[in-house]
Predict the 3D structure of the following.
Amino acid sequence: MRYSFLSILANGLNGQSDWKPAWRDAAPKPSYDVVIVGGGGHGLATAYYLAKVHGIHNVAVIEKGYIGSGNAGRNTTIIRSNYLLPGNEPFYEWSMKLWEGLEQELNYNAMVSQRGILNLYHSDAQRDAYARRGNAMRLAGADSELLDKRQVRAMYPFLDFDNARFPIQGGLLQHRAGTARHDAVVWGYARAADTLGVDIVQNCEVTGFLREGGNIVGVETTRGAIRAGKVALAVAGSSSRVAEKAGLRLPIESHVLQAFVSEGLKPVIDGVITFGAGHFYISQSDKGGLVFGGDIDGYNSYAQRGNLPVIEDVAEGGMALMPRIGRLRLLRMWGGIMDMSMDGSPIIDRAPVPGLYLNAGWCYGGFKATPASGWCFAHLIARDEPHAVAGAYRLDRFRSGHLIDEKGVGAQPNLH
Amino acid sequence: MRIPCPYCGERDAHEFSYLGDATLVRPDPAAVDAQDSALADRFHDYVYLRDNPAGAHREWWYHANGCRQWVRVTRDTRNHAIAGASLAREPGDAA
Amino acid sequence: MADRSSHDPLHDPLAGIAFDRVPPAGAYGAAGEPGVGVSTAEEPFIALAVARQGHAASVVERLRRALGVELADRPHAAIEGGTTVVGTAPGRFLVLSRSEPDLAGTLRAVLGTEAAVTEQGDGYVTFDLSGPRVPDLLAKGALVDLDPLVFRVGDAATTVIAHIGVTLWRTGETSYRLLVARSLEAAFTRFLIASGAEYGLRLENQGSGGRG
Amino acid sequence: MSRPDKNRLASGGLIDRAAPLSFRFDGHSYRGYAGDTLASALLANGVRLVGRSFKYHRPRGIFSAGAEEPNALVELRSGARREPNTRATVVELFDGLEATSQNRWPSLGLDVLSVNRFLSPFLGAGFYYKTFMWPASFWEKLYEPFIRRAAGLGRAAEEADPDHYEKATAFCDVLVIGAGPAGLMAALAAGRTGARVILADEDFLPGGRLNAERREVHGRAGAAYAAHVAAELASLPNVRLMTRTTVFGAYDSGTYGALERVGDHLPVPAPFQPRQRLWRIIARRAVLAAGATERPIVFGGNDRPGVMLAGAVGTYVQRHAVLPGRHIALFANNDDAWRGMLAASEAGARVEAIIDVREEVSPALVEAARARDIRVLAGSRVIATQGRKLRTVDVATPRGREQLVVDTLAVSGGWSPAVHLTCHHGGRPVWNEAIAAFVPGASPAGLTVAGAANGSFGLGAALREGAAQGAEAAEALGFPVPPLDVPAVEDEAFALQPFWHVADSKGAAFVDLQNDVTAKDVGIAHKEGFRSVEHLKRYTTLGMATDQGRTSNVTGLAIMASLTGASIPETGTTIFRPPYTPVSLGALAGHHRGKDFRPVRLTPTHEWAARQGAVFVETGAWLRAQYFPRKGEKDWLETVTREVTAVRSSVGLIDVSTFGKIDLQGPDAGSFLDRVYINGFSALAVGKARYGVMLREDGMVMDDGTTARLGPEHYVMTTTTANAAKVYQHLEFCLQVLWPELDVAIASISEQWAQIAIAGPRSREVLARVVDADVDVSNEGLPFIGAVEGRVMGGVKARLFRLSFSGELGYEIAVPARHGAALAEALMAAGEEFGITPYGTEALGVMRIEKGHVSGNELSGQTAARDLGLGRMASTKKDYIGRVMAGRPGLVDPARPGFVGFRPVERARRLRAGAHFLSLGAKPETANDEGYMTSVAYSPHLGHWIGLGLLVRGPERIGERVRAYDPVRGEEFEVEVCAPGFIDPEGERLRG
Ligand SMILES: Cc1cc2nc3c(=O)[nH]c(=O)nc-3n(C[C@H](O)[C@H](O)[C@H](O)COP(=O)(O)OP(=O)(O)OC[C@H]3O[C@@H](n4cnc5c(N)ncnc54)[C@H](O)[C@@H]3O)c2cc1C
Ligand SMILES: NC(=O)c1ccc[n+]([C@@H]2O[C@H](COP(=O)([O-])OP(=O)(O)OC[C@H]3O[C@@H](n4cnc5c(N)ncnc54)[C@H](O)[C@@H]3O)[C@@H](O)[C@H]2O)c1
Ligand SMILES: Cc1cc2nc3c(=O)[nH]c(=O)nc-3n(C[C@H](O)[C@H](O)[C@H](O)COP(=O)(O)O)c2cc1C
Ligand SMILES: [Zn+2]
């Protein structure tokens, strides 16, 4: 059923009786052309674009829990293309462009909301670093603006400009950046992929790979073996665990990143703000909760939860930046398992084992990448060659030295 | 999370800084001819590849705000339970 | 620089005090008998002795013979007359002396090539805290069990309080000594005042409003 | 103008009638007593309409008497202290309290958005995912702003929070969470063993349900018994009783987060007291005795003000001596609710009827009800309600329908144990059929559960379990356990018939009252395939409001289970996450806000520099003098130009104490340095210094600095200010982990030594005047890169280094930090006749750019030594950290951007760091990006702006022109590539 104002009206009048499942809860078939492991945003988007752009419909997305139970369902929803390095910036800008038409394409309101993201700077050196970034963005066709303190004050007068330990000097603004409703992105892609014939198989964990003569020809799952022409991994925080079953060691560590939401409030802040002198960033959901987060907890973890020091650190940053939030309350805290890569940038590549394709290493930044990741991964799977904007995301870059290290911290994942 | 520093006693993890996998061994540059690409491969594996297990993980923590010792900790990455810790200079098995 | 202007001056013991100056001596917070006394000094003579490879035991022995201190392989402060020796890491000892001007030289003479000695007397400001509420005050910063029931006289810890690295030990029933990096004196004093105000805090320091 | 509190009972309750308090709600004045909550006081005054719901703006009243409250959320206090979404049920009343209703406009009684109610047929679960998509641009412009304004509940304060917060840590052997009967006994049992015990309860009054129910323990009224135990606990030196303290989260290794509300029961916090205190409680063992939460039955019209949990009715009557209504009916499925209602009736409430879904109820209860003149409607259910505030209730009985005239409907669908903290480590609760509730499954290590939280609903059981677990916890830690005489109390039978939803009722039937999720919404979710509890939650927002679904989660999933045909345990629960109840951000930040966000580090000459009029700049934790403006100078550029000119023409001084300084001693110190630096240090002569570059193991530059050799086995290293801690940690890693065989001892001496640089052609003359007579600072005595120890200012120990960052003849003089300021003064005096000028970090930066030295901007972590023109320093004769990886093809690619200088072709142009480079004529796009400007300065020496940067094949392109592309500052112009040294490239000045 197509969603529209009319469909809502009709159902409102008939007691909501006509709604159909947004996607079929499929049972696995014995074989597919492509099996995608991981029903997060990336896996589902990949399936959708495989069907939509490349005409490959005999596709299954295999998800161990419910779709969106991974990082897609627990991120702080920020979408932006304010990257620095040539390997990254065009890719994220392509993603931004896909976001801009996504809802109409999927017929699903994912609440893509371009309310702007403002990265604050507190020193001349930081300003210059943001200028470098802003210019790199412009080169890639993205929008960026370098604001001074006066302009920032006009946007957010309540920030602590005067009494701050690290006074705010200005910010880098990307107007077209913003947020999207994370779950709706998952559901929208799932529904659209399902409509194109993709099987979405939930509660089905991949536990191993089927091999023939060194090639991967399918997966073992908790619901039986499934053969596949190609197997594509998009399991984010579980990348090492799943790849290990194919005998691979990856340049990835799994770390916990926490996020937080406050009680619901009338509008407090419109866009997204990141603090430049500590670990804190914040936006407000359409429901009214302040959604905020900070740095990763900093140690390998699959526990999907974090500890107090980071929570305190985030709150300290929040109070330093916006002392008006002191009496607001943190409602819920949770964690996600981040596939932190060794240079902080992702991998979209064929695996060293034939038949296997890799999409991993998104760190804390893969939500915004969802459309482009799906697009480029589908391209790679369908054509066996990388998409132009994802050409730098090779697995062998660590060997060759063509790193994409935005922060310049080197092979230390917990610092990216 | 509390890390049992062998010298200082149990301390909150925020006093430490974390480095990661403590099973990695820096390749011996003298063992292979310096021009040998095998050396580059070994360094690549050492610097970049990780087992990243879900389970027992032997890892380095530096007690930066304490005794400034590197501590080898065995911790379960699924539940953060710590099985043991030893100082880098002690050969001891952590678990 | 501006103080925390948004705060109610009646209730903010730091109102009007520049954050980049050491707060002046005086009484802060609740009136009456102060629950915490703080006095700071640059302990004139401090040196660090680090045992060389394989010499930890004999360094301990030499220090025992020369200074009369019993050292343990744990964070502990041995106090003997005017000399205090604090273990900060395996084979690492901070030696404090009230009277030995060439402390480093003396230690080098005592330890020979078995230890590396560096002068540290200018690196720290010493905070002497005393009073019944000191443990409560320290609990507001340290994540170390400083409960007098378990942290006994002579016990020591190198830890972090309010983002500031500190080496501390218990010198008496209600007295504690803390070493704080010199550059952080103002910040640390601010923490003490903000956290000790509810007990009443008396600060004695050089009162210059800044060091040097 | 205080109205009488007409619903207050004349006697009884745990309020202090001698302590009347006045308060205001929505502008009206009322009266209450010490011991009241805001909710109990409002009810006492007959106020029943308290708020508006989230989505449909329906009028709402008070639903519970505790932390689970979904409806009665208010804005407490005003101005900078406004606290939105405050549950009236847990606010302790104080004199002068002010509260206002929220989520309504213009007033609580007349709320415009209550029209949403009539649109509700169209606003079902997930409707917004299906519309608002056309035209695309309307989303941000129109739909979303409207949704955002309508959503949310209370309003945040507009000003900075004026109160103080702090954090503290407590250690204990046994932490007991909750001071109801189970918790009190647990604390007593553990406390009597001598173990260190903390007993925390979120309430201001210990006792839990003992304060709310009519029970006797040991011959005393329950509340009195609780007070008695609490008094004993307070007298034990090893026990800390913390009231008003909520344990909100279980973290790793026995760390619990707790929030103490130190001053929330006061108009403003007491002088010098924080408003709230965040506790990290580190417990070896913990006993969770958090009780249970009652849950309602869902039926049409169940949200009207006047519908209330049965236990809450009991609490208001017994604890607060308040009649929540004049005419009360009970709708229940269990015996406990009957008992509570009977007790309330005995205490003075008028109970009209008991409606029970069960056909069979224990004859004794029926008898007791009839004895109190209460009608019993067994086998019946509520199918509709009427009234803006509850007026009438329609009941379907086996004999047909009837309407009851009541103002209060007490509801009970059973109790859900407060298992939350047991789930914080991922444990899942398990279904217990007997009580139709989830009970704790696997708990965090060291945590056990007692009492109602464990599903043991009887009072006797709570007391016994509490005592047993408290003792067991202490015993496990080795404390000898003396016998404890646990009061024997009979366990009342717990009889319940699971019942969740009156499916045939009329009108919206709310499952989640706060988020306005109805039973019909659950049905929509089911139809659309959002059937897993997690999808149900996310699609309908069930359980996501400020109460986290305390009273709705189980009913919601039970309704879903009935739709899918799965059992409740198969359907499962969503995950409980911290915090148990919401925690203020102020408390989580504590002292660290404003100027105290992070500690400030001050240089030894800070005070001196301030006297010189310095403007300071934050460089990491440090404050450093940025420049020293003089009267009449129009801007910083004029000041900095003066400072640079003074140095280049005569002499200036700057405090460089912030550099990291590391002392290295030992026979292997030299070879150790050889391994960490790309260049060699073991062959450095004693008395000399050398510039060194250090790599990370991945081949990128980590840090640079000079290291001097003071003795055969003694070196002193300097690091950049920013990397001081990182380099020290790295050296310790190398020594402890990589090469433990090396005999080197390192120590940080950053704080020990003040270091002041003097630079300029007259610097030697200045230096000569401060050193003691026996120190030879002549060109021969202290040649370039010489390093000697000596004395200055008449006996002050010093280290003298002849180094130069500025390109001028220069020295760095280190003295023990306490003499730093005196040294600055002495140098100023010595240089007076040369016009010695203090300069700041800006001038330092200008001079290093003129000289072409790399610094922080170039050491970005993305540059290899080759990129920075430092490749030739790398020794080929030894191994060092980073050597192998630096040889990767990507890092030795000649097309990588290399380090060069720039000057504007039009000399008057101002250069900007961050501008990118494009070849002339190249289109501005990523593919043509050739690098960027890392640093710029106005060069007083050259009289124009100069820059340093990284340009593709830069060193091969000297003399070429490229475009500096800087659209974020609206600029784009040609620059000329040049060698990075703009001044004295031969280095004659510094050697002179
Ligand atoms: C707290 C937090 C905040 C974040 N904030 C942002 C942000 O603001 N902006 C941004 O761009 N990014 C953000 N991210 C990162 C972003 O969420 C992730 O990078 C991104 O969602 C990863 O891609 P995904 O959606 O496909 O992953 P996931 O949703 O994690 O999908 C992977 C799926 O694979 C499944 N799976 C794993 N193993 C198996 C198996 N063996 N068999 C079958 N299925 C399996 C998992 O169950 C999971 O559903 C954040 C992440 C977190 C945790
Ligand atoms: N028969 C029934 O149906 C039934 C059902 C439930 C409870 N009860 C009665 O309830 C009582 C159970 O005793 P109990 O001691 O187990 O529970 P309780 O409800 O009496 O006490 C729990 C206490 O824990 C506190 N608390 C809860 N969570 C907290 C947290 N996170 N931090 C700090 N404090 C917290 C509460 O404020 C409360 O004081 C008995 O009197 C029993 O009869 C009866
Ligand atoms: C952007 C965003 C907003 C959220 N808002 C709320 C909220 O308003 N209320 C709530 O209870 N949880 C909210 N959550 C948290 C979820 O309840 C949940 O904790 C999170 O998705 C992780 O899943 P888990 O806790 O089931 O592991 C939000 C999560 C995200 C990502
Ligand atoms: Zn330690």
User: Anything to note?
Assistant: Residues 101 and 114 of chain A are 12 Å apart (CA to CA).
